[in-house]
Amino acid sequence: MASGALQALIFDVDGTLAETESAHLEAFNRAFAEQGMDWVWTDEMYLHLLDVSGGKERILRYWQQLDPALDAQAVQGQIDQIHACKTTIYENLVNSGRVSLRPGVLALIHEARQAGLKLAIATTTTPVNIAALLRGPLGEHWREHFAAIGDAATAPLKKPHPQVYLQVLAELDLPACQCLVIEDSSNGLRAATAAGLATLITTNRYTLHHDFGDALRVVPDLRQVTLAQLRDWQNSWRA
Ligand code: XBP
Ligand code: MG
Fold this sequence. Notes:
Elements: E1 8-11, H1 21-34, H2 43-49, H3 55-66, H4 72-95, H5 105-114, E2 118-122, H6 127-138, E3 148-150, H7 163-172, E4 179-183, H8 186-194, E5 198-202, E6 217-219, H9 227-238
Parallel strand pairs: 1-2, 1-4, 2-3, 4-5, 5-6
Helix pairs in contact: 1-4, 3-4, 4-6
Bound molecules: xylulose-1,5-bisphosphate and magnesium ion (MG).
């Protein structure tokens, strides 16, 4: 196998494997109500709040916008409680069939596995959310499809920090030049690029306006994207 040949695909989760953010938004608002907060995030607000990766970090940023004098440490316990409530609601929404994989995702996962590539996940979301999303389309043994998973539990420094991508590269035991990332957001692109990784962007309504200048390519979704196409793009990027 040529030294730089494509050996692994690394998938982001939210917005990439599936368009999850409207379900996340509903879960945040229902958690606020259950926790007695009079907050309601509109879709427009959430479009901007998504500039902050990580649900807990997003709640803190919003609270600090409401109260610039907020003592972040003093409210961290309450944020953790709100976020735990949100995660339970989100998991139930996904388990109820609210979210499906984006077009082309499952086909590419199967094609890559059949071609002997390693698959990995690098996300800022919470581990239970990954399981809830993938158990349906990939079955109970969904975890076996992935040689490495980096998430909010393994990488506390959230995108655009490269920590989760550096962790996944180490776990894959592959150089960045033999891997390709599939992402949806500028934070994700920045994190992957900082880890030396070529990144294909699949856009969605929450990220269409983002700066994707450093992307290998930008496509609307994976419907027209084959493994051969990814190899070509990755070879051109390495050249
Ligand atoms: C997107 C995120 C996550 C989700 C919410 O993750 O930034 O925070 O919006 O999930 P990805 P949590 O890196 O997969 O695009 O509330 O579990 O953080
Ligand atoms: Mg994403």
